[in-house]
Amino acid sequence: AIHRRGASKAPPRTYVVMTAAPVRADGRKPAMMRQMKTERNPLQRAEGSARWEQDRSVVLAAVYGPTQVQARKEDVDKLAIEVCWRPAFGLQTPADVDAERTLRRTLEQIVLTAKYPRLGLRVVVQVISADGAVEACAMNATCHALMDAGVEMFGTLVAATVAIPKIIAGDAEELGPCADPTEDEERDAAAVGTFAYCFRGGKPGEVPANATPERECDVVHCSARGEQMSEDDFLRMATLARDACVEVYVFMRAAVCEWEEDVERERARLEERCKAVAAAVKEHGVDGAVEIFRLPYGPKGTGGA
To answer: How far apart are CA 167 and CA 178, in angstroms?
Structure first.
């Protein structure tokens, strides 16, 4: 560089090379969840039902009960819970039976079973499509279905799956634990774990008190499979799963608030219609109201036609 005499020399520039953060095959960062969607009450004949989606992993859960059951199935002290797990295709495998048993044990810790003695609750889980984290999707869908059925619980059941990729020689940097893995990531992972927590309290949009790092959260389920892992790896998986469950909890609370707003709007609409019908009956009589509103019934049983 050429500097004029007497001019101050410019300070040397410092260049910082920014390395890109490690990303997964689908472009997500290790702690990033896939897009979540939920639908309330897709099945009309069940007391409660919900559809839960995490990208291409889709699960439908239905709750029947609490209702009376056969004497051989009832428990005089608490609610008897039965879980039926239906795979996306084919017959049940030993893994499906194990998932059935795991979900039942988890629900027995979440539901206030002592409030429903001698009654039974049947939960049907239908896997529509599986692309990783199916067990966690099933737990989240079941929690939403229980909310829709009005079954009392200790708190909100939220679950997440975490995978630790295998370390391949020549990699520039280790990817670390990955939240919400796909089916390919689970198959190629060194270890996969599913964690379920019971979160309570907190306002909509806020993190519940027992989900903060300073508090001990209520773990209702924990399972890990794969190669032998160290204690540090397991703790990293549990920490990432808790953070992922907080994200699921916030999304679930937002969905519930949206459901409540829909119910309130429907109630207000029905109230307005009832008032309008009452005013029409008072002014025009029953036959006139039938002609105005085209009600599906009339005084002569003709359907108002």
So the answer is: 13
